[in-house]
């Protein structure tokens, strides 16, 4: 048997890549279009709850046809109390494989990939479903994915006003300070949910609730807004879907089942179903279904997180690492 080598990229390697906002967005938009055309294989995520702490593992699996031409599996933990230990709430690895032989090709830190690709899906969703002149962003949550939500959304929209909120004052204030420094503009940390989201053009809910609680009120959402709720536990009222012109998800297969998700109650109540669903985001990106059609539409995107996004961004990072000589090469067999 010929020797098999795998690339290994740790967190420091991925930071050294200095991947740009546009490189992230391009990789994710490419993968979404491939999904919309049917050039992918994706299976619903699986959960493992070890019962040893307040958290669980997500296992995501998929494959993308050429030109990406890779299969992958990501295992990422989601442990709410990790901040008490000085750790990120989401830690994980991505393994990439040759889809024709099954040979492993790479093992990569997936924490940064998870944050970046989540923010990119939020931003690409806004590209197709938000008003082009959106100027006010209201963002709930300050965890790892939150930073890339705001950063990549601002890359596309150059907001005039950015508001952020999270439960702990020190968290939201430090988050606002980091964003202000990195984006070069003022970011306001609000003291409550209403002050953050009321009247905003784009609303992102990435809260960290212990149990489903309707914290985000439907009456705060203005007509024509774009709303992205994706907290693990639902923070929205059942009535939120009633005001939406278009309900869009990233993958209906994994949205319609499972224990977790911000719109789980809406699925169970029949408010989000194959009948009420407008499209998967990939179908819109591929041009098979329309995105926003009028400024008056109030639209919603619920994304659970796609293995395809992880694979596509991992692929882009791996190719860049090979070009500039970052990472390690390990003998597998």
Automatic annotation (TrEMBL):
Enzyme class label: oxidoreductase
Give UniProt keywords alphabetically: Oxidoreductase
EC number(s) from the headed UniProt entry: 1.5.1.49
Single GO molecular function: oxidoreductase activity
Query: Is Oxidoreductase found in the keyword set?
Result: yes
Q: Which domain of life is it from?
A: Bacteria
Q: Which protein family is it in?
A: Belongs to the ornithine cyclodeaminase/mu-crystallin family.
Question: Known PANTHER family for this protein?
Answer: KETIMINE REDUCTASE MU-CRYSTALLIN
In Swiss-Prot or TrEMBL terms, this protein is called Delta(1)-pyrroline-2-carboxylate reductase
Q: Which organism is the protein's source?
A: Bradyrhizobium ivorense
